[in-house]
Amino acid sequence: MLKSYRPAIFLVVALILTAFTWYEIRPSWIKHDCSWIKEVEAGVPAKPSMTEDELQANNMLSTCDKPVEQPIQPDMTALERHRITVLNDAYDRCLENNRKIVSDYAQPRNAVPEKVSWRKSNTHEYEFCLRDKGL
Q1: Residue ranges of the chain with pLDDT lower than 50?
Q2: Cα angle 69, 59, 108; round to 5
Q3: What angle is formed at CA 89 by the lines to CA 83 and CA 94, rounded to 5 degrees?
Q4: pLDDT single digits (tens) 101-131
Q5: Where are the domains of the chain?
């Protein structure tokens, strides 16, 4: 007699286990996961020291256009004065960027691995996480 009810019993047990997992175990997992926040501090890759010639050979330095040699004169139009000023400013910025790159590569830098830490979430983060996960 019990053999005839075996599929029905199996189905009922499967439904009970599914409901228990969905309504009891899943929410406890979500609450546990939401109570902790994972913070990752990015790592820094190693950087070898390089000379200015090596940086130039690796195309890491910009080629700066020559500044305008023409001095600003009083009889120039405002547009001509502005053009000369903009070109000279661009040249100065290019040189400054190249100097910064050369100084950055002057000393070698060791690799720093990323750091992973966990902290307890505050109330706002916890509630946001619960809503996000559907609880």
Answers
A1: none
A2: 110
A3: 125
A4: 999 888 998 999 999 999 999 999 999 999 9
A5: 73-108
